[in-house]
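Example 4.3 (complexes with small molecules)
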Amino acid sequence: MLKLDSVRVSYGAIEAVKGVSLDVKAGEVVAIIGANGAGKTTLLKGIAGLEPLESGRVTINGVDCSALPAHKRLGVGVALSPEGRGVFPDQTVGENLLLGGYALRKDPARVDKLMAREFERFPRLAERRHQLAGTLSGGEQQMLAMSRALMSEPRLLLLDEPSLGLAPLIIADIFRSIRALRDAGLTILLVEQMANQALSVADRAYVLETGRVTLEGTGQQLLKDPAVRAAYLGAH
Ligand SMILES: Nc1ncnc2c1ncn2[C@@H]1O[C@H](COP(=O)(O)OP(=O)(O)O)[C@@H](O)[C@H]1O
Ligand SMILES: [Mg+2]
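Answer. The structure with magnesium ion bound is encoded below.
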């Protein structure tokens, strides 16, 4: 579903992603864990087409997307739920979802159907469909960000720090939703600073340190790895 070959992304002189190779198979949940500033967000932006690659290759669903703009990658089947959620605060929940389905705007019946599916998936959003997104709680905004990404019917969902800034009970809710998406067959690349939950839900995971993959394995292997435990799971 996704293959990265030696992907490099820079901001001027700052090389944030320094040659990352990884792959995600159809139906897998793959986690990327790493400290603040490791390059996780930059890597997802490079996959979604929001930051240009300096070199390397991004292949999505067999299509070389390395030089494609973001909206064309959406068409290939990748959608990003960004760090910080990025909902449009002055638009309603419903309007935010419509924007997620913008590429399908010539087929309103399909957009309606997708929106109904999202409201079924997240009943809290259905109850709040006429409410301005800026007035939602953090957890609800996270649901909206995921839902908006799902409105483009992606094959591959990129999730950047879905748990960021949320209370533990809400984080549990969000991870329940991620498991439900996995059970529905969606392929997910999940970026998290909170490694414990991410490794528990992931089939496989990669550790990113200052722009490089330093470790990979199954979620269970990394959960037990002493270096991972010391660095990311707060174990001693
Ligand atoms: N827009 C930007 N301009 C310049 N440097 C950036 C920008 N975004 C991120 N960086 C730098 O790139 C590195 C990786 O950042 P980021 O991808 O956000 O890491 P993470 O998501 O793992 O916390 C950091 O050193 C950060 O300061
Ligand atoms: Mg980040």
